[in-house]
Design a protein that fits this description.
Order of helices and strands: HHH
Distance between the termini: 58 Å
Shape: elongated
Strand content: under 5%
Largest sheet: none
Helix content: over 70%
Length: 84
């Protein structure tokens, strides 16, 4: 167990951040999956900027690596461009 008040507070704040980060990461993963499985170009084109924004926010908070976010955005944009 932690011996200092600051360490106890750090444990509490880390737990809160972990829960929040997991929520946003899971929400983004679901949005990426929805975009990947989409077959309607109009729907996918509307969803793409929202998903890209979610990925950028996760990368900014270092929940995911910035290169992973860039790679996902690139592959999703390519996928949307190939839809008919």
């Amino acid at each position: 167990m932690a011996n200092h008040k600051s360490a106890i507070k750090r444990i509490r704040s880390n737990d809160a951040k972990r829960v929040e980060n997991r929520y946003y990461a899971k929400t983004t993963r679901n949005a990426v999956k929805a975009l990947r499985t989409s077959t309607n170009k109009k729907e996918a084109t509307a969803l793409l900027p929202k998903v890209e924004s979610m990925l950028d926010k996760l990368a900014k908070k270092t929940v995911i690596h910035k290169n992973k976010a860039a790679n996902l955005k690139s592959s999703l944009a390519k996928k949307v461009a190939t839809l008919k």
